[in-house]
Design a protein that fits this description.
One of its GO terms (biological process) is translation. One of its GO terms (molecular function) is structural constituent of ribosome. Residues 147-232 form the Large ribosomal subunit protein bL25 beta domain. By secondary structure, the protein is of the alpha+beta class. It folds into two domains: 47-142, Beta Barrel (Ribosomal Protein L25, Chain P); 147-230, RNA Polymerase Alpha Subunit, Chain A, domain 2. It is 17% helix and 34% strand. Strand 4 and strand 5 (116-127) form a beta hairpin. The longest helix is centred in the first third of the chain and has 15 residues, at 2-16. The radius of gyration is 21 Å and the shape is elongated. The two termini are 19 Å apart.
Length: 235
């Protein structure tokens, strides 16, 4: 255990010394390997009904929640200069959370606001700390180049002799910051563990990135650590 902790301290200290950006370089990785489930395309976007709300503030928000309505804000523009107060049905939103899980914030919805349809992505979903009920959610108008945080999924662990014989993976990053280049947005980004050995460091070269995404800075650094493999070395 002491050796493992010493190794991890050295790993983190080396990562901090690496520059966070590569002078605007855009590093895109492609793979012919399937990257898992995708969200629906623009022709099959899920629809979520919303309406304009005229009041803002904590008191009005509490009244809405008691009535089963979630206060929300629709942001738009490159710098989110557009701000529109809206509200959505709590049961409808809860059903979308149940269906999509972690991929909810990477799903493009047809957000129908009083009959006007906007392509938008949920953002900043907040829950009550005790009841876990949804108390707030914002939306961002979808556009090419939009920044998203993609959940990471590790695959092909069965193709690593070390992991099959008692070594284990220590995830360091749970998400990867990306820019959206096109729809549909994948539900997650896969990281290939084929052939990893004890003390291997999993970096961006093992990410199977689809053509709809590109890695965003500062995660663009090729020395960015996603995970490491720890355990007994195979003889």
């Amino acid at each position: 255990f002491a050796k493992t902790m010493s190794y991890m301290r050295a790993l983190f200290s080396s990562q901090k010394s690496v520059p966070a950006k590569l002078n605007g370089l855009r590093w895109r990785m492609f793979s012919s390997v399937s990257v898992g489930d995708h969200s629906l395309g623009m022709d099959d976007r899920p629809t979520l009904e919303a309406s304009i709300r005229t009041e803002d503030g904590s008191r009005s928000s509490k009244r809405l929640r008691r009535a089963g309505i979630i206060p929300s804000v629709l942001f738009g523009g490159r710098y989110n200069e557009t701000r529109k107060l809206i509200q959505v049905s709590e049961p409808s939103l809860r059903e979308q959370v149940r269906l999509r899980g972690d991929s909810l914030t990477n799903t493009v919805f047809d957000l129908a606001v009083d009959g006007e349809v906007h392509a938008a992505i949920p953002n900043q979903l907040q829950r009550h700390p005790v009841t876990d009920k949804i108390i707030s959610v914002n939306f961002i108008l979808f556009r090419k180049g939009l920044r998203v945080k993609m959940p990471i999924r590790f695959i092909n662990d069965q193709a690593s002799a070390a992991l099959q014989r008692g070594a284990y993976l220590l995830p360091i990053a749970r998400e990867l910051r990306c820019r959206v280049l096109a729809e549909p947005i994948p539900n997650r980004v896969d990281v290939d563990l084929t052939g990893v050995a004890v003390k291997d460091v999993v970096r961006l070269d093992r990410v199977l990135l689809p053509h709809e995404l590109e890695v965003d800075t500062p995660d663009l650094d090729p020395n960015f650590v996603i995970a490491t493999v720890v355990g007994k070395r195979l003889k």
